[in-house]
Amino acid sequence: MALTLGSGPFGKQSTGTFNFDNSVLKAHTLYFEDSPKRVRAVFNGETVADSRSVKLMHETGHLPVYYFPEEDIREDLLELTDHTTHCPFKGDASYRSVRVGDRVAENAVWNYPEPEEHFAPLAGYAAFYAEKMDAWYEEDEEVIGHPHDPYHRVDVLESSRHVKVSVDGEVVAETNRPKMLFETSLPPRYYIPPEDVRTELLVPSETKTVCPYKGIASYRSMRTNGEGVEDLVWYYPEPLPEAQKVKDHLCFYDEKVELEVDG
Questions:
Q1: How far is CA 92 from the centre of its chain?
Q2: Do 92 and 84 form a contact (C-beta atoms < 8 A)?
Q3: CATH number 2.170.150.40 is the correct assignment for the domain at 154-261
């Protein structure tokens, strides 16, 4: 998540208060800042962008985006296209494709040649669609998913809360030793030891999701009495360092179960 999503200060479900009338905030509040990290984008074995002067864009309702100085992008690998878009806050965007060998990432790079006056600092910078590149690196570590938000935090705490999970009145998990995961802008999540879950009711799912802060999640669905609930629970077999404590613990979608905490 980010400052600009969920319950973050510039998110649509912000839970905090400012010491001024926050109705003065624009629908797309923008915050453009320096990043201290060296950032690289790789496509088809070639480094397309490599910069120690990257900027990070925070925009209401959007995940953070890296903007590269134009001089740190391999212009010889880019092809200008006719595609354009308009943002009422930033201006008109032009697009370029990335071509390396026999592969092309269409309209993968955008920039604002003449940004709106209130965001003139965008001039001279360009951004990439993260998913159109093969790999991203911050310093020498590969990044999965979207760029890391420096204001994002993951805390996993031991807890003795009593947590009970039911589906259609049937208890499927109950524990007094959950791991509580607190993540910026998101509700707390309860990760339950597999020994405290009726795993015989769960079947593997092919679904995988990526979290830049926790890792790649695997899923399980529930089958009982001929009925099923798809992707009811997720877990991290190989979590990233921030989430090591929840390795192999199971977390149920609050929206798909009846969750009781401390009665």
A1: 26
A2: yes
A3: yes
Can you read off the two tokens belonging to residue 3?
């400052």
| Interval 27-40: pLDDT, tens | 677 888 999 999 99
Amino acid letter for position 55: K
Q: Is the dihedral of CA 200, 197, 213, 188 positive or negative?
A: positive
Rounded Cα distance, 140 and 43, in Å: 16
Lateral strand order in the sheet of 91-100: 30-34, 55-59, 65-69, 125-128, 103-111, 91-100, 78-87
Place of tokens 């529930």: 222
Tokens 């092309």 belong to 104
The CATH code of the domain at 22-143 is: 2.170.150.40
Q: Model-level pTM? A: 0.83
pLDDT (tens digit, 9 = 90+) per residue, 78-90?
999 999 999 888 8
